[in-house]
Amino acid sequence: MSSAATRTTGQDHLWSVDDHLEDILATVRPLEPIELQLLDAQGCVLVEDVTVPVSLPPFDNSSMDGYAVRVADVAGASEEYPAVLTVVGDVAAGQVEQPHVGPGQAARIMTGAPLPPGAEAVVPVEWTDGGLGEGPVSGMRAHSAAPEGASGQVHVHRPAEARAHVRAMGSDVKAGDRALEAGTVLGPPQIGLLAAIGRGTVRVRPRPRVVVLSTGSELVQPDEELGAGQIYDSNSFALCAAARDAGAIAYRVGAVADDAETLRATIEDQLIRADLLVTTGGVSVGAYDVVKEALSSVGDEDEAGSGIEFRKLAMQPGKPQGFGSIGPDHTPLLALPGNPVSSYVSFEVFVRPAIRTLMGLKDVHRPTTRATLNADKALTSPSGRRQFLRGTYADGEVTPVGGAGSHLIAALAHADALIVVPEDDTSVEPGAEVEVVLLG
């Protein structure tokens, strides 16, 4: 990021949303890969292809509880003329030694157990008398309660084709196949697949550690009693939750009072656990906007390239913004405005893509679509500003929620989309097609 001299001149220029985002993403770099245990890697992004070392399943196995048989022995079997076979033993999942199934024989087999030598198919237990000689049964008795079920005779009432109810070795994935591609986000199914092919660790980019802090002497923590002129701190909670939703490990810092030295010290203390710092409040032009006061020179004594630049953007809400890097590791910092809607919209437009970039994802943006505006009257927008309005999206239509005020957090809680009004449009009529950013 630019030097202190450049930081001051940047305040007089009205930056576009796209240029500001481009500067952020050009500065933020994906985190270095590390090797993690499977459960620790949940939510992380793979940095290399994973190849299957052993086929899944690793052997032919039964998909049913029943009897492993030879096809010829059950050909033409029916309830009136069942095939009568000699049971030569049990085959359970995980069993090492297996009986051989010869002509006129069957082995009682459990789901997931290896197909024993000599057997060609599995008939479900429901197609048999279960060895009881009393017609079709609905299941097997527990081996511990009736060990005699592994011997004697069984009547089979239906024929079976070759390989019936047999899961073939490698029918899921074969040894040498690519199980997962680099760039895959590891969720529960991917973690399960890695475990199934024997991978205990995996090389990934770690989830970014994001520290969120809000500023303002008027802020009080939830559950505390409000005094005169005080409000509850909602921004740090919303942004911390948004950072987690984006894939980060987020830490929330209690609200910092309007004191530049306290804020500077708090930020410096948080650097040890931050891959990205996000502040909210104190970036406008007021006499008590301490984020600008605290951070305008925070990088001066650092190595070249550090520092925070404060800008005015051609957007509504979210005109005042700050971005740069601080500390010896040049930790990125994004300073957002303090109004609740402004801070959340700014997060979606700027911070979320930065988090996704740190994760190493290729697509860092929310999905967008085109929708028909469902409104009672035209939407107005200031000339030269890209406006983001809250809305609800369904079935190709988007309906505005609440007004344009940047303090209307209740309306934000009911929105699942942002309606984007371009810089050159000052009015959007009902029924017009608009761009929509999908939030959920």
> Quick check: average pLDDT?
89
Largest sheet: 7 strands, mixed
User: How many β strands by DSSP?
Assistant: 29
**Oligomerization state:** single chain
**Helical stretch count?**
9
Strand residue percentage: 25-35%
Low-confidence stretches: 1-11, 299-305
Helix proportion: 10-25%
Instruction: For the largest sheet, list the strands in their spatial order.
Output: 1-19-21-22-18-14-17
Q: Radius of gyration in whole Å, from Cα?
A: 32 Å
- Quick one: overall form? elongated
* Computed structural class: alpha/beta
C-alpha end-to-end distance:
32 Å
Verbal overview:
- The protein has a seven-stranded mixed beta sheet with strand order 1-19-21-22-18-14-17, with helices on both faces. A five-stranded mixed beta sheet has the order 9-6-8-7-10.
- It is an alpha/beta fold.
- A hairpin with a 4-residue loop joins strand 21 (320-326) and strand 22.
- The protein is elongated.
- Helix 2 runs parallel beside helix 8.
- The chain is built from nine helices and 29 strands.
- The longest helix has 20 residues, at 340-359.
Secondary structure layout:
Layout: H1 4-9, E1 14-15, H2 17-27, E2 34-37, E3 45-46, E4 50-51, E5 61-62, E6 66-69, H3 71-74, E7 83-91, E8 105-109, E9 121-124, E10 153-156, E11 166-167, E12 178-180, H4 188-196, E13 201-205, E14 209-215, E15 219-220, E16 231-232, H5 235-246, E17 249-256, H6 260-270, E18 276-280, H7 290-295, E19 307-313, E20 315-316, E21 320-326, E22 331-336, H8 340-359, E23 368-373, E24 379-380, E25 386-394, E26 397-400, H9 409-413, E27 417-421, E28 427-428, E29 433-438
Parallel strand pairs: 1-19, 7-8, 14-17, 14-18, 15-16, 18-22, 20-25, 23-26
Antiparallel strand pairs: 2-13, 3-13, 4-12, 5-11, 6-8, 6-9, 7-10, 19-21, 21-22, 23-29, 24-28, 25-26, 25-27, 27-29
Helix pairs in contact: 2-8, 5-8
